[in-house]
């Protein structure tokens, strides 16, 4: 009796070569049993060459060369560039690993989601908190208990005061709302039910955001977040309350790589099984993009 050979690892191309690409995407793709980091392209050829040599990949001269060499594409580039190249990758039949936010605006996110749907490819968003076992257990417990009437989030950090993201203009321009807002809105949405409306928002001069959200079923939540506060260590706290009391979730330090591995587990399994829907797929990314847009508009009116 012959055993069926395991499927060959997915050939994945990486677009981007910044700190997040080099510390999470590249080693994660290279080390995972279901993927192989095959090709890399960045706008700086010397960066692509160095990163490719470190992980046994090839450095490509352009994105079309990368598309020709891979089955899937992982992105670690600014949102506007990701939305544009993501559409091209989907149209070329490539599966996608997308960063958050998935685009610079709702229109770009809609085009990307439509391209993914039309192509029938898998597209997962790197919402690292959602892939953590600690988070999944917390959400499972909330769903089992039910009866939650409200929640609050605090994500206070000095990440944009340091050097790590000093060369990331989009983060400095768009700030906490675009960078950590998708993580925040995704998890509080998963905990209390879909966000139906942004009731109010305010952004201070030092990029401290306060947002009030309404959820399906009548629950409300408050969000406070900033990446420009000198807080060490960062404060990351999600809480819900209701008829079963108060339940809180913090962020486990150093869990990004573990979460990325869990994402790749799901990514490879979905492609192998022909499944395209997932709690953190491109349509989730579009939902979050719409919340970001509502918050931005509400702050502009404040």
Automatic annotation (TrEMBL):
Keyword Oxidoreductase assigned to the entry: answer is yes
Any idea where the Gfo/Idh/MocA-like oxidoreductase N-terminal domain is? 10-125
SUPFAM superfamilies cross-referenced by the UniProt entry: Glyceraldehyde-3-phosphate dehydrogenase-like, C-terminal domain, NAD(P)-binding Rossmann-fold domains
* Gene Ontology molecular functions: nucleotide binding; oxidoreductase activity
UniProt KW keywords: Oxidoreductase
Q: Does the keyword Oxidoreductase apply?
A: yes
The UniProt entry, under Pfam families, shows:
GFO_IDH_MocA, GFO_IDH_MocA_C3
**Superkingdom classification of source:** Bacteria
What sequence ranges are listed for the domain GFO/IDH/MocA-like oxidoreductase? 155-245
Instruction: State the InterPro entries in the record.
Output: Gfo/Idh/MocA-like_OxRdtase_N, Gfo/Idh/MocA_oxidrdct_glycsds, GFO_IDH_MocA-like_dom, NAD(P)-bd_dom_sf
Protein name per UniProt: Predicted dehydrogenase
């Amino acid at each position: 009796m012959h055993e069926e050979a395991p499927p060959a690892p997915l050939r994945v191309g990486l677009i981007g070569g910044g700190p997040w690409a080099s510390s999470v995407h590249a080693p994660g793709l290279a080390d995972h049993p279901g993927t192989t980091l095959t090709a890399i392209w960045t706008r700086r050829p010397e960066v692509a060459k160095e990163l490719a040599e470190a992980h046994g990949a090839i450095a490509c001269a352009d994105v079309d060369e990368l598309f020709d060499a891979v089955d899937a594409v992982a992105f670690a580039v600014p949102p506007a560039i990701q939305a544009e190249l993501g559409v091209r990758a989907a149209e070329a039949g490539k599966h996608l690993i997308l960063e958050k936010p998935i685009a610079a605006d709702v229109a770009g996110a809609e085009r990307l989601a439509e391209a993914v749907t039309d192509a029938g490819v898998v597209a997962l968003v790197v919402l690292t908190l959602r892939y953590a076992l600690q988070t999944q257990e917390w959400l499972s417990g909330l769903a089992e208990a039910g009866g939650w009437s409200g929640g609050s989030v605090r994500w206070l950090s000095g990440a944009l005061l340091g050097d790590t993201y000093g060369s990331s203009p989009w983060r400095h321009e768009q700030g906490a709302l675009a960078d950590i807002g998708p993580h925040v809105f995704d998890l509080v949405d998963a905990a209390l039910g879909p966000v139906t409306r942004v009731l109010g928002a305010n952004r201070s001069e030092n990029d401290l955001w306060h947002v009030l959200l309404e959820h399906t079923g009548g629950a409300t939540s408050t969000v406070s977040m900033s990446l420009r506060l000198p807080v060490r260590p960062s404060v990351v706290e999600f809480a819900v309350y209701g008829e079963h009391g108060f339940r809180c979730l913090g962020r486990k330090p150093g869990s990004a790589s573990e979460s990325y591995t869990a994402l790749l587990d799901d990514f490879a399994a979905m492609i192998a099984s022909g499944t395209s829907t997932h709690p953190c797929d491109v349509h989730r990314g579009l939902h979050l993009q719409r919340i970001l847009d509502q918050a931005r508009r509400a702050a502009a009116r404040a």
